[in-house]
Amino acid sequence: MKILVVDDFSTMRRIVKNLLTELGFTNISEADDGKTALPILEQGGIDFLVTDWNMPGMPGIDLLKAVRANTEIASLPVLMVTAEAKREQIMEAAQAGVNGYVVKPFTADTLREKVDKVFERLEGAA
Amino acid sequence: MSNVAPIPDGGVNEQALLLEMATTLVSQLQASDIDEANKTIFELCKLRETSLFQEIGKLTRDLHDGLNSFSHDKNFETLTKESLPDAKKRLDYVVQLTEESAHKTITVVEDSLATINDLGKRSLALKKYSDDLDSETFSEKLNEYLTTTISDAKEMNASLIEVLMAQSYQDVSGQVIQRVIKLVHDIETSLVDMIRSCGLGTEDGTTSVDTDLEKSSQAKLNQARSNQAGSNKQNDGHGFGPAVPGVKHDSGAKVGHEVVQSQDEVDDLLSTLGF
């Protein structure tokens, strides 16, 4: 299981990476923007994407849409971890096909719960 | 700027007048006619004062016009009435976030120090039994020791996760500060624009603001204005930044624009959408 963590704040990337390690995921890559993340995803081999929304180059919502538009990686599970908290944004992410949405600041338990849920649902659907 | 009174232009007329007065002054002085010379000097000073007052008058009028146009400028009004008070709230929120995180971290460190010190003491006591070769007591004490250590390790793990999570203030406060920095830029460009439109000119007729700065600031100002106009479009999909208590988000409180207050609300909203 290989995970890509995308956030423009390096501190948040380290936090998420450490939490995922605690959950037993050890193969984790990082990117600091949607623009740098997309080529990595397109190369293939990433099984789970955790992304921020508000990033300087390509925001997370556009990254999500780009993933869903690319048949090669369209089914990639995507968890959004963001400070963006408007109802319309959450709805936009849901419509774009996000698998989970966590608002910052969040707790370790919340992230664990959402990650578990994403995989539970994927297994249920499979 | 319109309606500007004519000022002495330093041109041919004024030059001729000055030359005439100077020649008069020289001949009066050569004739030792001090009283008349003083009168001429007085006239000369009056001429300078008049042009100075006219220059000040022009600047005052320009400043007045500039301020008037800014008081009708919606962008400037938003800056002073909403953005600046919001900026204060945003920075207060950063102080609050950093304070909470620091306290959380310090508390966990204090607890962890106590746990680790205790672990050291217990290990030392156990080692004593081991040294004394009292195998029965040692076995019993070892068991106790292991039980406590396992539970302490679990506790320490939770503590360290808490320290880790407390560092998330850097992301949230960083985003809030970035927005305040943008506001300061907007104010800067507005001020530059005000100086420019007031025409606080230098002798060669250009404004006192560096032309390049002026151009880039004007571009930034236009950008800021178009952002303001387009703020309902989520700043081109880049988002609104963290919700700050007491700060209305850019697009106001239209339907669908309200900010969720907790992860539970996010979950509720998603469940209504079939999640």
Give the gist of this structure.
The complex is a heterodimer of chains A (126) and B (275). With 126 residues, chain A is of the alpha/beta class.
Unreliable sequence segments of chain A: none
- Topology order of chain B in helix (H) and strand (E) letters: HHHHHHHH
Largest sheet of chain A: 5 strands, parallel
Highest-level CATH class of chain A: Alpha Beta
Q: Radius of gyration of chain A from the CA trace?
A: 13 Å
**C-alpha end-to-end distance of chain B:** 61 Å
- Tell me which CATH architecture of the largest domain in chain B applies here: Orthogonal Bundle
Bulk shape of chain B? elongated
* Biggest interface and residues each: A-B, 36 and 34 residues
Mind telling me the CATH superfamily name of the largest domain in chain B?
A: Helix hairpin bin
Structure description:
The complex is a heterodimer of chains A (126) and B (275). Chain A has 126 residues and is α/β, with parallel strands linked by helices. Chain A has a single domain, classed as Response regulator (Rossmann fold), CATH 3.40.50. Chain A is 48% helix and 18% strand. In chain A, strand 1 (2-6), helix 1 and strand 2 form a beta-alpha-beta unit. In chain A, helix 2 (34-43) runs parallel beside helix 3 (60-69). The longest helix of chain A is centred in the C-terminal third of the chain and has 18 residues, at 108-125. The model of chain A has no long low-confidence stretch (mean pLDDT 94). Chain B is mostly helical. Chain B has two domains: 12-71; 76-243, Helix Hairpins (Orthogonal Bundle). In chain B, helix 3 (74-132) packs antiparallel against helix 4. The longest helix of chain B is centred in the middle third of the chain and has 59 residues, at 74-132. The radius of gyration of chain B is 37 Å and the shape is elongated. Mean pLDDT of chain B is 77; it is low at 1-8, 201-210, 223-234 and 251-255. Classes of the chains: A alpha/beta (126), B mainly alpha (275).
